[in-house]
Write a structure and sequence with these properties.
Layout (H helix, E strand, L loop, with lengths): L1 E6 L1 H18 L4 E6 L1 H6 L1 E6 L15 H17 L4 E5 L2 H13 L3 E5 L11 H8 L2 E4 L4 H4 L7 E3 L3 H5 L6 H8 L5 E6 L4 H21 L3 E7 L5 H11 L6 E5 L2 H6 L3 E5 L2 H8 L4 E5 L3 H10 L9 H6 L6 E3 L5 H12 L2 H18 L3 H13 L2
Parallel strand pairs: 1-2, 1-4, 2-3, 4-5, 5-6, 6-7, 8-9, 8-11, 9-10, 11-12, 12-13
Helix pairs in contact: 1-17, 3-4, 4-5, 9-10, 9-15
Length: 379
C-alpha cells in the first residue's frame, strides 16, 4: 500500500504522523510520501517538501507565495500521476490541497481530505469544492458532516486528536515541580506558533503580563516558545515590556507542560485554545491579523461569528473570553485573566464543561481516520 500525503504546518504534521502510525500498525509495509513535517518524517514518511513551505496565513499575505505554491502543486500532481499512490490524503491546507485532490481524482487516484475547511465561518462554497475533490472527508468537529449532507460528500466525524492526546488526570502541582515553579498562581502565555503571530501578538501579551505582574507580584508566567527561532523574539518582547524575569519561565517547546502548570492560559486564538480546554484549563484568547485582512474578512467576506474560539463554538457559550483586533488591548485582557484568577468557582465550572467536551471529542481519531483511508485503498 502506498499513500501520498500533503500536510500544511505543525498541526497537519501531527495529524499526518498519527495517521501514519495507525495505518502502519495494521500494514507494516505501507509506504508514505509527499509534503511532510518532522513528525511525519519520524513516523516513516518520505519527505519531498517540508510542510512548513505551506505555512502561509491571512487573506492578502499569501499572495506573494502563489507562484511558488502553484509550481509545487503542478509538480506533485505530475509526479503522482506518473507513479500513483493507492490513496492520496490532503491534510488541512484546503486552498492548496483541494485543487491537488481534484487533479489527482480526475487521473483516477482515490482521495481523502483530512480536516474540513471552515465553511461554517466563511466561503461556504468550498463545500462544493470538497465534493469535487475528495472521495472521503475526515471531519474533526461533530457538527461538520451535516453541513455536507446536501453536497453528497462522504463526510465522516473521526473525533479530535487533541482530545485523544490529553491525559485523563492533570497534575498541576507535579507540572510546576518539574518546571521549578513555586509560585501560588501561574499563568501560561502562548503567543502563537508562527512568526507573524508572535510579531503581532507578542508585544500585546507582554504588556498584558507586565500589567498583571504589577498588580499581583506573586504571579508567575510560563511562556513556551513554539519553535527555537521564536525564543529570542519572545524574550526581547518580554524585556521591552518590562516583565520581571524573576517571575518568568521561558521554555523551548513544552506547551502542554506549561498549560498543565497553569491556573489560567492566555493565548493566541487557534488550536492551542482547544488544547487548553482538553486539559481543563480556563483560558483567555486574543488575535490580531493585518488590518486590511481584517477589513476584508468583516466587510467583503462577511465573517461575523458569535464566537471565534473552538471551545466556545462547540459549547455554544462563552467559556473563553475573546479579544480580537481592536478589542485586543492589554487592559481588558488583563482584567479577564484577573477575573478568572479571582474566581475559583468559575474556573471549576469551566473545567467541568471542558471535561464534557473532551469526552465528546475523544474517539480515537487516528484509528478512525486510518480505517477510512484503508477502506479507500481497497480494490
Amino acid at each position: 500500500m502506498k499513500i501520498g500525503l500533503v500536510a500544511g504546518e505543525a498541526s497537519g504534521d501531527a495529524l499526518g504522523a498519527g495517521l501514519i502510525r495507525a495505518i502502519r500498525a495494521r500494514y507494516p509495509d505501507a509506504a508514505f510520501e509527499g509534503v511532510a513535517g518532522p513528525q511525519m518524517a519520524a513516523a516513516g514518511c518520505e519527505v519531498w517538501e517540508p510542510a512548513e513551505s505551506l505555512a502561509v496565513m491571512g487573506l492578502v499575505e499569501p499572495l506573494r507565495h502563489v507562484p511558488r505554491l502553484l509550481r509545487l502543486r503542478r509538480n506533485l500532481a505530475k509526479r503522482w500521476a506518473a507513479a500513483p499512490p493507492d490513496v492520496f490524503v490532503g491534510i488541512d491546507a484546503p486552498d492548496f490541497n483541494l485543487g491537488l485532490e481534484k487533479k489527482l481524482r480526475a487521473s483516477g487516484i482515490r482521495t481523502a481530505h483530512y480536516v474540513s475547511p471552515t465553511i461554517w465561518v466563511w466561503r461556504a462554497g468550498r463545500a462544493r469544492k470538497v465534493a469535487n475533490a475528495a472521495d472521503t472527508l475526515l471531519c474533526i468537529l461533530p457538527f461538520e458532516p451535516a453541513l455536507y449532507a446536501e453536497h453528497d460528500v462522504n463526510a465522516v466525524f473521526v473525533g479530535h486528536p487533541k482530545a485523544d492526546e490529553a491525559p485523563a488526570v492533570i497534575d498541576t502541582a507535579a507540572a510546576r515541580r518539574e518546571l521549578g515553579i513555586e509560585a501560588a498562581e501561574v499563568v501560561a502565555v502562548m503567543p502563537g506558533s508562527r512568526s507573524g503571530e508572535v510579531q503581532r501578538l507578542g508585544g500585546l501579551l507582554a504588556e498584558t503580563m507586565r500589567r498583571l505582574g504589577t498588580g499581583r507580584p506573586g504571579l508567575h508566567f510560563v511562556v513556551p516558545a513554539a519553535r527555537p527561532d521564536l525564543r529570542e523574539t519572545i524574550r526581547a518582547q518580554m524585556a521591552e515590556a518590562g516583565v520581571d524575569p524573576q517571575h518568568l519561565t521561558l521554555l523551548d517547546g513544552g506547551a502542554m507542560q506549561a498549560m498543565a502548570a497553569a491556573d489560567v492560559v492566555l493565548q493566541a486564538s487557534g488550536t492551542a485554545v482547544l488544547e487548553a480546554a482538553m486539559l481543563g484549563k480556563p483560558a483567555v484568547a486574543t488575535y490580531r491579523v493585518a488590518p486590511f485582512t481584517y477589513w476584508l474578512g468583516r466587510h467583503v467576506f462577511r465573517i461575523d461569528l458569535a464566537h471565534f474560539t473552538l471551545p466556545n463554538l462547540l459549547m455554544d457559550e462563552q467559556l473563553v473570553p475573546e479579544f480580537i483586533q481592536g478589542e485586543a488591548q492589554p487592559g481588558p485582557i488583563a482584567d479577564a485573566v484577573l477575573g478568572l484568577l479571582d474566581d475559583p468557582q468559575r474556573r471549576q465550572f469551566i473545567s467541568e464543561r471542558f471535561d464534557r467536551l473532551k469526552k465528546a471529542l475523544a474517539l480515537d481519531a487516528d484509528q478512525r481516520a486510518a480505517d477510512a483511508v484503508i477502506e479507500l485503498a481497497r480494490p
